[in-house]
Each structure stands twice: as C-alpha cells, then as structure tokens.
Amino acid sequence: MSPLPRIVLSASASLAALVLGQCAGGPRLQRVVTVAPGDRVAVALHTKSGHVQTMVNRSSLSPAEADKQLKRDPGLKILADPTVQQLLDALGGNRFFDMADSGDPPAGYTAMQVLHNGKTYSTSSRQTNRDDLARWAQWVQLFQDTYNSTDQFRSSSLDSRTLYESRDQLERDYQKRTNKQ
Questions:
Q1: Rounded CA separation 34/66 (Å)
Q2: CB atoms inside a 10 Å sphere around CB 22
Q3: pLDDT digits (tens, 9 = 90+) for 53-75
C-alpha cells in the first residue's frame, strides 16, 4: 500500500476514533449541527497571515457551482456530507460549539469558523487558560486531519489522472536532460 492511502486511512481512523470515544465515554453526544442534504456547511481555518483553508459539504453545491468555486479557490476541499458531519460531531464533542461565538472571528488571531445555513460559529487562538488552549489545539488537529486526508485534485482543470500524466511527463523530460549531459 502506498503512503497516501495509509495517511488517509490513518486520519479517517483518528477522526472516527475520536467520535466513537466521545460517544462511548460519559454523557451521550448531543449533535449541535446536523448536516441534511442540501444544507450549506463550511468549516474554515483562518491563519494570522490571512491564509484560509476551507472544506464544504458536497450536497450544498451543484456541479457548476462547485466548478466555479474551485476555480476561485484551488485549495477548497469538497467533502461527502457524512464526513462533514463526523467532523462537526467531533468538534462538538470537544465543546467547540459551547465555546464558539456567533459572527466573524477576531482579526489578528488564528481562527476556526463553522458556517451552517447562514449561522456562524467561530473561535480563535485567543484562549486564556491552559485547558482552553489544549482544546483549541485539538480542534485545529481535527480540522487538519480531515483537510489533509481529502484529495486535492478536485477541479475541472486538474484531476488525478492529469496530475499523474504531468508527473510522468516531467520525469521523462528530466531523464532526457540528464542523459544528454
């Protein structure tokens, strides 16, 4: 098995383990945000430098709308609705929604934002105590694990087949150049 599928499986397993752990221990997990087909859900991580990583649920976008958004933001990840629901459940199990503010996150901090059908939940790295900072780190890790385990090749101009063909062509060109020397 190549390293990429192992990473994807590992990240998915981590997210699933966290969700199961939240369900198994203590009180029953109460779902704060439910992703229904067609709901508009976006989960975004904003850095201090202005970089944004965003994930949206697949059923909220028509193919034409997805194509348009991907052309504007090639780093956008489009996830299956159940994957988005798992992420939201894991965040909720770690009190994200209890601690989140409504509205935009404060400027000048790394922030996480969940948008669900027009409602905004946001938190930032501006946490004041050790427990909250640890919880913030868990939220960011959950986000990054999910974001990184999702294929990047999701635009009409670049799919995995095109990517691998380009890689092969680059390797052939490199071999030609190095063999001439």
A1: 22
A2: 18
A3: 999 999 998 888 888 888 888 77
Distances (CA, A) of 158 to 17, 34, 58, 67, 161: 33, 32, 18, 11, 8
Rounded-to-integer distance, Cα 80 and Cα 41, Å: 11
Answer whether residue 164 is part of any domain. Answer: no
Surface-to-core class of residue 126, CB atoms within 10 Å of its CB (0-12 exposed, 13-18 middle, 19+ buried): middle
**Rounded Cα gap, residues 135 and 119, in angstroms:** 22
Residue 171 domain flag: no
Domain membership of residue 170 (yes or no) is no
Within a domain: 118: yes
Global pTM exceeds 0.85: no
The CB density around residue 103, as the number of other CB atoms within 10 Å, is: 10
Instruction: Give the number of other CB atoms < 10 A from CB of residue 159.
Output: 13
Predicted local confidence at residue 128, as pLDDT: 72
